[in-house]
Amino acid sequence: MTDGAEATGGGADHADAVSEEPQWLVWARRLQALSQSGLHYCDDVFDRERYEEIGRIAAQIVAGHSGASADRVERFFSQEVGYATPKTDLRAVVLREDKVLLVRERSDGLWSLPGGWADVGETAAACIEKEVWEEAGFRARAVKLLALYDQRRHGARPHPFHSFKAFFLCEILEGAPRPSIETSEVAFFAEDALPALSTGRVTESQLKRMFAHTRNPDWPADFD
Questions:
Q1: DSSP labels for 134-200?
Q2: Which residue from 101, 111, 118, 123 is spatially nearest to 170, judged by alpha carbons?
Q3: Is the entire prediction scored with pTM above 0.85?
Q4: What is the greatest pairwise CA distance in the chain?
Q5: Which of 2, 31, 170, 212 could in theory staple to 58 by disulfide, Cβ–Cβ 3.0 to 4.6 A?
Q6: Same-domain pairing of 186 and 93
């Protein structure tokens, strides 16, 4: 992709903007959302039974392709209530001397940008600043939204729930690298020397796009 094409923003034309999700997951996610939203709005006992059955079918589809039991998947889905909407995953892009801050996740031993699900009752900026502090040991300030992606379109590991991923450029205010209960290591990496990544959290192409953004501060935020 040429620099001119990248500079247009609106990331729908990125090279990795192709869904590689299996069709069974697409169907299961749609059925689960239909079940969740239907249970939120319906009052009729028979309609509730139908929506509950739709939810069980969604769980059985996931179980049949993932190795998890249907009961376990149902319990996982049951945590989501109300009208079904995408979740929001926030990631911090912190640079120092042209290197990006990454943390090694204890859960899988792979590296990612600091971040996680947005918390209810907090702004996106407050959430991502807290994540940098808790996962990496740095006090930081969010300064710019770089991208808002649909996780299905950017090569991330498939997930049962639909989510959006927001990347914020952050600047360090103070602190030093410090691992946490979620992270075992904290380090800075050059663009051409990235470690093995936790691709459910961030992909190599996304990191390279964030490096490109920092070299072109006038670019608008990407979005799908």
A1: HHHSEEEEEEEEEEEEEGGGTTPPP-SS-EEEEEEEEEEEEE-----SSEEEEEEEEGGG---B-TT
A2: 101
A3: no
A4: 62
A5: 31
A6: yes
Q: Return the residue matching tokens 């907090």.
A: 122
Please tell me whether residue 8 adopts helix, strand or coil conformation.
coil
CA–CA separation, 16 and 20 (whole Å):
10
- Please provide residue 194's backbone torsions phi and psi, each rounded to the nearest 5 degrees: -75, 145
In contact, 113 and 93? CB cutoff 8 Å: yes
Residue 125 token pair:
């900026």
Q: Tens of pLDDT along 123-174?
A: 999 999 999 999 999 999 999 999 999 877 766 566 667 789 999 999 999 9
Answer yes or no: do 138 and 216 share one domain.
Answer: yes
| Encoded tokens for 61 | 């589809």
Q: At 167, list the tokens.
A: 């990347």
Rounded Cα–Cα distance for residues 160 and 40 (Å) = 19
CA distances in angstroms from 207 to 31, 141, 194, listed in the order given: 32, 19, 9
Question: At 211, which amino acid appears?
Answer: F
Token reading at 106: 């204890």
**Containing structural domain, residue 196:** 86-223
Q: What tokens does 11 get?
A: 């990331």
CB 147 within 8 A of CB 11: yes
Q: How many CB atoms lie within 10 A of CB 171?
A: 13
The 10s digit of each residue's pLDDT in 166-176 is 999 999 999 99
